User: Fold this.
Amino acid sequence: MDEAALTRLRDWLAAAQGDPSLRSANARKLSGGAIQQNWALDVETIGGPQRWVLRTDSAAVLAVSLPRTAEYALLRAAWAAGVTVPEPLYLCADARVIGAPFFVMRRVEGTALGPRVVKDSALGGGREQLAQALGRELACIHRIRPPRADLGFLGDPPADAGRAAISTLRGRLDDAGTPRPVIEWGLRAAERRAPPPVPPVLVHNDFRTGNLMLDASGVTGVLDWEFAAWGDGHADLGWLCAKCWRFGNVAQEAGGLGPRAALYEGYAAESGAPVEDARVRWWELMAHLRWAVIAADQAQRHLSGEERSLELALTGHIVPELEWEILAMADAP
Amino acid sequence: MLERPDGPDLLATAREVLLKELLPALPPERAFAARMVANAMAIAAREAQADLSALAPRDLAVLARAIREGRHDPGTPTHDAVRAWLGDYARLRASVSAPKALG
Assistant:
């Protein structure tokens, strides 16, 4: 953001907050993803200093991710459902203010960085307690169910979320045009043993280590809602538990952070129903397949020249190890 | 003959310099990029030395389609051979891209 954009932003925030004295003390870009940008805003208001985060789109936007306006509505729904998320404050759909729509939320403290959090066994009150807390967060998210007028942009829930996910991944493989027989092998195995559909709930779809802000006491914020959709809640448990998202700490099956049993306990206590372990395992196979397809697509953005990037290039080299795991998982009965 | 040291040797030697001499001198926020460069050099060196002749060639598009259509499912006559080939194929690729994953 240049000076002119920052001035327009200040004016907009002052009006939104109803505080003409509002002053922006500092705005700095946080290490962001390929899809969106996050800015830390330190703001002086009549009620005292505020620490906010502004979230907006990067130039290169993944077609499959939701726009900021939708993400803001999801945050509000999650906040109301008791999920630990940064409090959503303001949405600006007008691209003229800073060049793209954005929203502002309260900044939460903690650390999310995968390689760091899996090494800290004291985080979140210890591994058992942390895994239970993650289970409770997911159960709260899954209490959000269709139909919801405020989440109308999510469309109608799929009749069978598992089979719909298989079909989506096949479509993405076809669009990419690179034959990937190992991924096909995994998708076919998943298709043969797909569990029957369950009533749809809100699925976060990226609830994993790296997107979970944590501190010594527990979860301080569930972040990155841009892939949320109606579906099978077990998909979130499977994505979190998938070996490819444990950041090397494979013994702690809940995201490298804590035991799987504690995750299930927390989930069952909050939701009132036990976790179907076999269904979670099925979604863990799907998690590897989905991550493999995403990684291949990211490398393609580099290969096509759309966005030359060493990080995207190296992401493509994750695909073979995912395929190696997919074969082992597809063999399992 | 081309001059030696060859590409993999140069990549390995340059990578040592990067990790042992340059990385410690970099500001912390640049360490991630340096590690990515080191990783890319390691992959490129392994790729140059990979033995592709160990894998019987197959038409990947034909194979992918047949798998999707269930023509190599468990119980079919071709299942075991296809599974074995896919294992070799994935192992070869992972041995270049991420050999640690093979254990």
